[in-house]
Specification:
single chain, two-stranded antiparallel sheet, 1 helix, 19% helix, four-stranded mixed beta sheet, alpha+beta
């Protein structure tokens, strides 16, 4: 799998940030993105030598331009209703 994206909720926050991160890491998922809609924040992790490394934390109207796993432009505030 190239990319997993989780929308964080208060009820599953720990599961998404800890358990799912570990599971995706072990499964070899190249990129793991977590969107926190309450903060309009996107956290981007990339797999390096089998371990996730934080590549970016983007908030509000700031722009994130990914190269991996494919080129895409993301603005966290635009993803939140």
């Amino acid at each position: 799998m190239l990319l997993a994206v989780e929308i964080l909720a208060s009820a599953t926050h720990t599961v998404d940030r800890v358990l799912k991160r570990h599971l995706y890491e072990r499964a070899g998922v190249t990129s793991y993105w977590m969107l926190d809609p309450t903060k309009e924040q996107l956290t981007v992790l990339e797999l390096v030598s089998g371990v996730y490394v934080e590549r970016a934390v983007v908030v509000g109207k700031d722009v994130f331009e990914a190269e991996l796993p494919f080129p895409v432009r993301v603005v966290p505030a635009d993803l939140v209703c």
